[in-house]
Amino acid sequence: MINEFRDVFGFSNKKIESGLKDNAILSLEIEFESKCNLRCVYCYAGRDFLRRNELEIEEMFDVISQAKALGAQKIIYLGAGEPLLDPKLIDIVKYVHKLKMEHILFTNATLINEKTAQLFYDNNLTVIVTYNSMKPEVYDWLAGLNGAHASMQRGLEFLYEVGYPDNNHVLGIESVVCQQNIDEIPSLWRWARERKILPYVECLTHVGRVNGRKDILVKKEETQKVFETLAKIDADEYGLYWKPHPPIAGFACKRHLYSCLINSQGYVLPCVGVDIKMGNIRKEKLKNILKNNKTYNDLRNIRKKVKGLCKTCDLNDECYGCRGTAYALTGDYLESDPTCWRAKK
User: CB-side exposure of 164: number of CA atoms within 13 Å?
Assistant: First the structure.
């Protein structure tokens, strides 16, 4: 597995094992307000916009401080919508930077301007931009809004102008493999590599708007072919070596061993895919919620608890499939991932 992905999004096996031993968390994912200017056809949030009673900034400061006290080194900013629509984002970015923690923003980039780009750069923020297609008509269709591609490109230009990417400021693109863009994923990968941009290519998670959308789904064999192509490109053209497996190309998602999600209403979830509410930070400290929760502890022990073909897979030491997809399609977050091409009976 290539270390660039691990260093940005994850942690070394040694650090993960140490965290498990000490009952620590290493990162925290946190959602901002459930507002969005796009309507992406694959959105994990589904139609759950404009939720009531969302977190105030003091509550977000507090839970981030709690996470740091539990060992967290990274904060990952997600959106129940688009984070840049939430006026709290800027102050949260400054706060986390002052805490000397790493932080990563997932954004559609359509609202980035010169001022916000400079602020992101000054606060050493890693920025991951939604980039599902180089074709405006495909991008706009997947985003659910005409002109989305042009707005995203404008946001990218502002990031370039302030200095992204460089040795201390990571810029990435996030591409979700759909039927509409699958043929250009290798081109997107090369486009990113040539510009020193980190390509983050992931499988669809079968939650939210993906449910009932057969027109965007790809077969597991098609995903296999794409991931194997990307691995060959990296090996042959860039001297980077990794074993292809879902749900993310070039990266082993081990988030359940060291992370959790705080949604915009304060509920603690294992991740965006396993949407089981384990508790709420307004009622109980994060430490106590995690310590006493069966789902959280099951997933922390996923190597022993996982079932079926995922348990016997030859990549079991690096991968345990997508727990969100397993939960969505089987009702059991410990079951094998049915969309993995290695899960052949």
Answer: 29
Strand partners, 105: 77, 127
Q: Cβ of 58: how many Cβ atoms within 10 Å?
A: 9
Look up residue 108 and give its DSSP letter. Answer: -
pLDDT digits (tens, 9 = 90+) for 93-137: 999 999 999 999 999 999 999 999 999 999 999 999 999 999 999
- Position 345 confidence tier, pLDDT thresholds 50, 70, 90: very low
Distances, alpha carbon 156 to alpha carbons 91, 120, 125, 165, 171, in Å: 22, 12, 14, 11, 9
3-state SS, residue 241: coil
Burial 264-296 (b: 16+ CB within 10 A, else e): bbbbbbbbbbbbbebbebeeeebeebbeebebb
| d(C-alpha 170, C-alpha 133), whole Å | 20
Alpha helices in 234-291 (DSSP H): 286-291
